[in-house]
Structures are given as structure tokens and as C-alpha cells.
Amino acid sequence: MSRDGLVVAVAGATGAVGREMLKILQERQFPAREVRALASSRSAGARVPFGDDELMVQELTEDSFADVDLALFSAGGDTSKTFAPIAAEAGCVVVDNSSAWRMDPEVPLVVPEVNPQALKEHKNIIANPNCSTIQMVVVLKPIHDTVGITRVVVSTYQAVSGSGQKAVEELQNQVRALFNMQDPACEVYPHQIAFNCLPHIDAFLDNEYTKEEMKMINETAKILGDERVRVTATTVRVPVFYGHSESVNIETAKKLSSKEARGLLSQAPGIRVLDNPRENIYPLPVDAAGTDETFVGRIREDPTVANGLNLWIVADNIRKGAALNTVQIGEELIRQDLLAR
Ligand code: A2P
Fold first, then answer.
1. What atom of ligand 1 comes closest to residue 39's alpha carbon?
2. Structure confidence by residue, pLDDT tens digits, 103-131
3. How far apart are CA 221 and CA 219, in angstroms?
4. Parallel, antiparallel, or unpaired for β 6-11 and 32-39?
5. CATH superfamily of the 6-129+322-335 domain
6. Best mutation site among 14, 74, 131 for ligand 1, i.e. most ligand atoms within 8 A of its Cβ?
């Protein structure tokens, strides 16, 4: 870091996550002397909001990183595969939001509340986990540390914003079309998403799971640093704009009552317990949208196994699930003095 502060670049600055990254850098007064907005040649010269100001978008090229200390990437896996090594070689530390580097053994996969120590091993590329994984591990971590999680069964209810701005527009357009007695156009998803649920996120694999499901399975073990935590997942797209929800059933080595779980989680970093069903209080995606915490409620003991709990976990997928976690990794790099320059 130069004496005057950091030069920070956001790659994919015109996208849904990139725009949120710029907003969060500003909101949290990230110690940057300069912030650069990078995107494809299509957007060069366009302007994106940055606080009360605007930034002029520059084309992302091989020469974009010579004097950049920290680059936050959210421009798709192919762009990350090509440009993250170039940036890293130029001495810039990359925090990448795509799935391109997450399972690379040389690349730390980090949620600051869970495994900040993993950053120490970085070689200039750090991966931001999948949105659904992030909010789940924030809640699993304190339970795992206390009573040892042996098995997790998760079903997700994921918002369309996780598929980018085009998917947000597709849901809006389909709702409008259906109320006007017209056929809904399906471009982003293979089926109508309005008033529907699609048990299909990302591509299907040979093992009959989707890539999204395998991300949750593999990334959870890597972040918790414990291969013994067995995870199975069903990931579902639902007609919600912002905020992913998850029904999570866990089995633990030792017993944890629902009351103890509430107490434990209410003390844990980044978590807010909202669990008063008598008053109709439980986490909702419409309330989580625009916030920074991971919300947990509907905490119940599962009587069908020796030591089991059911949880309902909700977070803003664009903020904690993506942009906020990436910026928090940047903050943690500064705290641990781990930026390269
Ligand atoms: P652009 O707007 O110029 O296409 P989203 O996930 O919301 O669709 O956003 C994707 C982001 O990634 C956008 O900012 C997009 O820029 C950027 N992007 C996509 N492809 C490239 C590329 N080849 N080089 C740089 N940025 C890219």
C-alpha cells in the first residue's frame, strides 16, 4: 500500500454485484485513494455511480493492474480465469467473486467471520464463496465449533438477482406479461420463473446434482476446514428479487438445544437471530434485502435424530452473498497487513 492509501479496481463494475461493490466501498469508507471501474469494451466510457459522484468505466485489459493494490472481480468466470493471474503477476491482490478459483488448493476461500486465518496463505488470488454457501457457513461455524456438525441437509430458495441483472428484468417482464394475458418470454431460465419454482441452478452434472449444489457441498468443507462435515443440497430458484433463503437441517456430535443454539448464534459475528414465531417474527428475504447481516430463525430441535436442529437462514445474496463479503475480505487483508505492495 502506498503511503497515501490504496488504489482499488472493481472489475465488472457495470454489473449487479460490481455496482454494489462500489456502493459498499463508499458506504464503509474503504481506505482507497482511488477507485477504478473496469468492465468490457462495450461499457468503456459509460459512467457508474460512486457515492455522490460517478466513475468513468475503463475497459478491462492486461494493462489495467500495473499500479492497482486490490482488485475486486465480479465479471464472470472466464474473465477471472484470464485476468486474475495477470493482475496477480503484476503484484495486485485479487478477490474474485466467480467460481473460477474457489476449489483451487492454492487459493484461500474466505468468509471473514469464519476463516480469516486462511488469508495468510494467499498468493495474490483469493476466492469469494458462492452466495448460498456464505450465509450458511456464517451460521454453521459457531455451532460446529461448539458441538461438531456431522451432517447438513440444505434446501435453498434463491432470488433471481443471483443470476444477474437480466434475470431481475426477466421476472419483472414475466409478471407484467402474465397480468396482461400474454405468454411470458423465457431467456435467462429454461422455464417461467414468475409464480413458479425451478429446482435447477447452474448446469446439471453427471452425478445428477447441479453445479450450484456441488458448490455448496465442496465449498462448505473447504471453508470450515473439515472434510468430515457431510453436506447434501437441493438448490431452487424462486420468484424473489433479492435475498436467498435456506432450510437447513443439521446433525451434531453433541447435543445443542434450540435455546442454547439461539444464545450461541445471537453472540456470533455477522448473525442476527429473529426467532419469535408467536409474534410472526422470522427471517424474510424482503427484510434482509439491503442489509449486511445473516438472519436466522425457526430454530427447532429435530426429534427424528439423536442431535439435530432445523434452521431457516436468510441473507441479501448481492451484499453478504457477494459484494459485501468481497469488501470485507479486502478489509481483513488490510487488518492482517496482507496486501502485496
Ligand atoms: P459489461 O457491462 O461491459 O458487459 P452481471 O453479472 O450483472 O451480468 O454483470 C457482469 C459484469 O461483468 C458486467 O460489468 C460486465 O461488463 C462484466 N464483463 C462481462 N464480460 C467481460 C469481459 N470480457 N471483460 C470485462 N468485463 C466483462
1. 26
2. 999 999 999 999 999 999 999 999 999 99
3. 5
4. parallel
5. NAD(P)-binding Rossmann-like Domain (3.40.50.720)
6. 14
